[in-house]
Design goal:
The complex is a heterodimer.
Chain A: H1 2-32, H2 39-55, H3 60-81, H4 90-111, E1 126-129, E2 132-135, H5 136-158, H6 160-170, H7 172-177, H8 182-208, H9 214-229, H10 235-254, H11 257-274, H12 281-284
Antiparallel strand pairs in A: 1-2
Helix pairs in contact in A: 1-5, 1-8, 1-9, 1-10, 2-3, 2-4, 2-8, 2-9, 3-8, 5-6, 9-10, 9-11, 10-11
Chain B: H1 16-32, E1 49-55, H2 62-81, E2 90-96, H3 101-114, E3 119-122, H4 126-138, E4 143-146, E5 159-161, H5 166-170, H6 173-179, E6 184-190, H7 193-208, E7 212-219, H8 227-235, E8 240-242, H9 250-259, E9 268-270, E10 291-294, H10 303-315, H11 328-345, H12 350-357, E11 361-362, E12 370-372, E13 379-381, E14 384-389, E15 392-398
Parallel strand pairs in B: 1-2, 1-3, 3-4, 4-5, 6-7, 6-8, 8-9
Antiparallel strand pairs in B: 10-14, 11-12, 12-13, 14-15
Helix pairs in contact in B: 2-11, 3-4, 11-12
Classes of the chains: A mainly alpha, B alpha/beta.
């Protein structure tokens, strides 16, 4: 029983991190048809914002509040300055985002001296449930992920802005004809996606510590999650992220970890083979 | 000796070919400068001894490579200020191995073929050593000195190792861990050659001292989630975690271990590559009590080491630290041992220097004296056990005399 609680908690907390990371990636991929290879570095920038506020003596939570806005601004600037010129050529756009990511990563590496730096949790310690220790900060991350999911889902399905965004996504030409500025919607979407990555990075830096390659591993697993969940919806990638999170944190409990790492990808590819349009495809079509 | 390009023929008029050759030479000389293959670096200097450094100045382990380059610069400047070696000055050629083996092989080839260095120091990871050693030793016929702590078993002729081996890091450390932790060991490890061979040796020492290995497990190098491992450690009543998980995984691993209450219940965490560079990966309370065993710590009590550390910090203030885990101490030791060997051999050719280096000894270095074990091409040195306390290391024991590397 205790074991089940602790396994369940660990799976939930890692999945929550994956969901936060992938939501932004999925939003951008779904809305704009561009796979953002700089997404891992947006995550890194969120983490760096928190690290920077902390090293200047401000409280860590202040950095976490600032991170999504700071990264959203960077995202907005990049979308306006670079990415919007490439919507017609998705492959070029992807290479462009890859280059942007590389520049960000290597700049951060220079700024932090290529070293690892710890950033303290705003909430230190753990709850004791029975004889199981549950990290307080991981509990917060699970809660935040839930709030973000519910918040965005309501925004997209229950508000006028959500309707505009979905219209610009499904039929850009008609949306423009109806007086919706798709340019503005795209810029907004990209900024929001970047902001979500910033939030995820800010929240997870106390767990994984600050280092330049923080985003790389999450980016690859994030792509897998988006493929698994399917492009074109908000809930698809989130579900895909949860699946990838559970698989990659759960398989090492029963298998050799090196094998588990490979198996996550194998399982995901098999699922994609049988459901090429994503896990939720039948509901939506 | 500046040679004029052959532009002014005596009898025949200027041909197009000679003009083009000359112009190409001049352009090359201007573009590449001294030290390139166009203009030999020796011009303008009286035949210096050429010392090649191949280290990871950039990429993920750039922090360590920069420290190695700093130490090499500091030591050669010092030697040159005191008159050089055999009356000749040392000239440094530093090439970036960029934490990338394929880039490295090309750059090291430049050291060998273009600069024709007399000796190469460098390489930090074992994969890097394996990638460049053939270029240096076999095809390059040059002496190679490898400075990093490593898994042992590098017995290629003309490669000398000046960092600690598994025997040096385990023989005294593991009995200490059993005494100050317990008998049940877990060996969580990153999946590559260093942890595998180190664990092989550590397992023997653990069993010889009456301990047991509860589990030995390997993880992908970039794994950052360790809940399954931590759970295994907690439920199997492990006393000592002998960790060879490397960054980026090591930070989250130690944190999860702390949050699960491993140290609170008396568990002992240990990690033999932990030095001053890794102190910032976790918050101080998370790795309180972590034990490490290296050839040097900043807090050891040795006047020469303290002076060396102070000199380094004065020359290179900032984040690139002089530490044992980043091969900086091995680099110092290697350079000084080589200097002694060249002085004794009175020549710089590979054969004579290797023969002299085989028995070289230095009286002073980081952590104390060091000497080569004849015929083994590995180095005896002092070893220290240190325990993390409030985010710093407290040295708890020093080896009695120089520890044998037990290699080759």
């Amino acid at each position: 029983m205790e074991n089940i609680v602790s396994v369940g908690f660990d799976l939930a907390s890692f999945s929550a991190i994956m969901v936060l990371m992938v939501t932004g990636l999925g939003v951008i991929a779904s809305m704009m048809g561009v796979f953002n290879f700089a997404h891992g570095e947006f995550l890194l920038l969120g983490a760096y914002t928190v690290y920077l506020t902390h090293s200047h003596g401000y409280p860590v939570w202040a950095g976490m509040v600032a991170a999504p806005f700071a990264v959203a601004l960077v995202g907005l600037a990049l979308e306006r300055g670079v990415i919007r010129f490439f919507y017609a050529e998705p492959v070029v756009a992807m290479l462009g985002t890859y280059a942007i990511g590389l520049v960000i990563r290597e700049s951060v590496r220079g700024l932090i001296g290529g070293l690892y730096h710890s950033v303290p949790d705003p909430l230190i310690g753990s709850f004791t449930v029975g004889s199981v220790q549950l990290s307080r900060w991981r509990c917060v991350i699970i809660l935040v992920a839930a709030v973000v999911l519910v918040g965005f889902w309501s925004l997209l399905t229950r508000t006028g802005l959500g309707l505009t965004i979905r219209a610009a996504l499904e039929n850009p030409a008609l949306a423009r004809a109806s007086g919706i500025s798709t340019n503005r919607v795209y810029a907004l979407t990209f900024a929001v996606g970047a902001g979500l990555a910033g939030l995820a990075g800010g929240l997870m830096v106390p767990i994984f510590s600050m280092f330049a390659d923080l985003g790389v591993r999450f980016l690859i697993q994030g792509f897998l999650a988006v493929l698994l969940g399917g492009i074109g919806s908000f809930e698809g990638p989130a579900l895909g992220a949860a699946v990838v999170g559970v698989l990659s944190a759960g398989l090492p409990w029963v298998l050799s970890p090196v094998l588990a790492d490979v198996l996550v990808f194998v399982i995901a590819i098999v699922i994609v083979k049988f459901r090429p349009a994503g896990l939720l495809s039948t509901e939506r079509s | 000796m500046h040679r004029e390009p052959d532009l002014a023929p005596s009898t025949t008029s200027l041909t197009r070919r000679s003009l083009l050759t000359g112009a190409a030479w001049a352009a090359g000389a201007v573009a590449l400068g001294r030290g390139s293959f166009v203009v030999p670096p020796a011009w303008g200097q009286s035949n210096p001894i050429k010392v090649g450094i191949a280290t990871d100045l950039t990429g993920p382990i750039g922090f360590a490579g920069k420290a190695n380059a700093n130490v090499a610069t500091m030591v050669t400047n010092d030697i040159n200020a005191k008159g050089g070696v055999l009356g000749r000055s040392l000239q440094l050629f530093i090439e970036d191995t960029a934490s990338n083996e394929s880039v490295a092989v090309n750059n090291v080839r430049k050291l060998i073929q273009r600069d024709r260095v007399d000796v190469v120091f460098g390489g930090i990871t074992s994969s890097m050593r394996n990638a460049i050693k053939d270029v240096i030793v076999t095809r390059g016929r040059t002496l190679y000195i490898y400075p990093q702590l490593y898994e042992g078993q590098e017995c290629t002729p003309y490669i000398f190792c000046t960092g600690p081996t598994p025997a040096q890091q385990c023989d005294e450390f593991i009995p200490w861990l059993i005494k100050n932790g317990g008998k049940r060991f877990a060996l969580p490890s990153a999946n590559y050659v260093w942890p595998k061979l180190l664990n092989q040796y550590a397992r023997k020492v653990i069993q010889a001292n009456g301990g047991e290995v509860v589990f030995e497990e390997y993880y992908p190098l970039d794994q950052v989630e360790y809940s399954a491992t931590v759970n295994k450690i907690m439920t199997n009543n492990v006393n000592v975690v002998f960790n060879t998980v490397i960054p980026p995984g090591v930070g989250p691993f130690i944190k999860q271990l702390y949050e699960a209450g491993f140290t609170k219940r008396g568990g002992r965490l240990s990690c033999v590559y932990y030095d001053e560079n890794t102190l910032n990966i976790n918050a101080a309370h998370e790795f309180e009590g972590l034990a490490s065993c290296l050839d040097y710590f900043r807090t050891i009590n040795d006047p020469f080491s303290a002076k060396l550390q102070a000199d380094y910090d004065k020359l290179y203030p900032g984040t690139v630290l002089f530490t044992a885990g980043s091969a900086a101490t091995g680099m110092y030791r290697g350079l000084k041992l080589w200097e002694t060997a060249v002085n004794r051999a009175k020549k710089v050719d590979r054969e004579s220097v290797a023969t002299a280096l085989d028995r070289a000894r230095i009286e002073q270095g980081p952590g104390g004296p060091a000497e080569m074990v004849p015929g083994k091409r590995h180095c005896k040195m002092n070893m220290y056990i240190a325990v993390a306390k409030n985010g710093n290391y407290e040295v708890v024991t020093q080896s009695k005399g120089l520890v044998d590397p037990k290699e080759c």
